[in-house]
């Protein structure tokens, strides 16, 4: 096992037509982290785009599966097996309907809450105690189907603050890597 290496996976759907979708919040956060690490994503045999580098002195592999959200589990398992990362050093960054827009929450384990990406990862790993950084996208107003809502772009009002909010989520990932879950929760759950 690579005891000092972290694997941070952002969830989203591949392709330009999905780039601005709420469901791609995980990809957006990973793009910010890649900029901070000073590197570029490269194709990897795990069916992912990966960047190996450092964030604040911490060895990290950043990854974005090239599959659709509901098939994220295979690439995540392949990455974990390839890099030999312990489950406690696997971080999944994803959108979360049950959190208000822009809020960031961190946790370890738990259910999938109807999130198809998490469901696929848990099924492929056979375990659910991986770390999660959840980016709030809120719930749709009225009767809009939640699945349709997450596949829509952020609203014009949300986009005004999106860069700031995504940057804060990236900060939360770095806080988790540097100081552990408890410290990161204390810093980001109070906001």
UniProtKB/TrEMBL annotation:
EC number, UniProt record: 3.1.1.29
Active-site residues, as the UniProt record annotates them: 23 (proton acceptor)
Pfam families, per the entry: Pept_tRNA_hydro (PF01195)
Gene3D superfamilies: Peptidyl-tRNA hydrolase
Annotated site residue numbers, Discriminates between blocked and unblocked aminoacyl-tRNA: 13
Record CDD domains: PTH
GO biological process: protein quality control for misfolded or incompletely synthesized proteins; rescue of stalled ribosome
Claim: Nucleotide-binding is one of the keywords in the record: no
Keywords annotated in UniProt: Cytoplasm, Hydrolase, RNA-binding, tRNA-binding
Localization annotation: Cytoplasm
Site positions (Stabilizes the basic form of H active site to accept a proton): 95
Residues annotated to bind tRNA: 18, 68, 70, 116
GO CC terms, sorted: cytoplasm
Claim: Nuclease is one of the keywords in the record: no
Single GO molecular function: peptidyl-tRNA hydrolase activity
InterPro entries in alphabetical order: Pept_tRNA_hydro, Pept_tRNA_hydro_CS, Pept_tRNA_hydro_sf
SUPFAM superfamilies to which the protein is assigned, alphabetical: Peptidyl-tRNA hydrolase-like (SSF53178)
Chemical reaction(s) catalysed: an N-acyl-L-alpha-aminoacyl-tRNA + H2O = an N-acyl-L-amino acid + a tRNA + H(+)
Subunit architecture: Monomer.
Purpose: Catalyzes the release of premature peptidyl moieties from peptidyl-tRNA molecules trapped in stalled 50S ribosomal subunits, and thus maintains levels of free tRNAs and 50S ribosomes.
Similarity section: Belongs to the PTH family.
Protein name as catalogued: Peptidyl-tRNA hydrolase
Provenance organism: Actinomadura rubrisoli
Taxonomic lineage of the native organism: Bacteria, Bacillati, Actinomycetota, Actinomycetes, Streptosporangiales
């Amino acid at each position: 096992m690579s005891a000092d290496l972290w694997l941070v996976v952002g969830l989203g759907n591949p392709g330009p037509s999905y780039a601005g979708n709420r469901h791609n919040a995980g990809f957006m956060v990973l793009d910010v982290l890649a900029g901070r690490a000073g590197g570029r994503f490269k194709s990897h045999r795990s069916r992912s785009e990966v960047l190996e580098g450092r964030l604040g002195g911490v060895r990290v592999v950043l990854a974005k599966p090239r599959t659709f959200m509901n098939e994220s589990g295979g690439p995540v398992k392949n990455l974990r097996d390839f890099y030999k990362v312990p489950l406690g050093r696997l971080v999944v960054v994803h959108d979360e309907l049950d959190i208000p827009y822009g809020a960031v929450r961190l946790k370890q384990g738990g259910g999938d809450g109807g999130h198809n990406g998490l469901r696929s990862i848990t099924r492929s790993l056979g375990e659910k105690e991986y770390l999660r950084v959840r980016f709030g996208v809120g719930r749709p107003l009225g009767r809009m189907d939640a699945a349709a809502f997450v596949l829509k772009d952020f609203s014009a009002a949300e986009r005004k603050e999106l860069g700031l909010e995504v940057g804060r989520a990236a900060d939360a990932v770095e806080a988790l890597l540097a100081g552990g879950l408890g410290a990161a929760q204390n810093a980001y759950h109070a906001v």
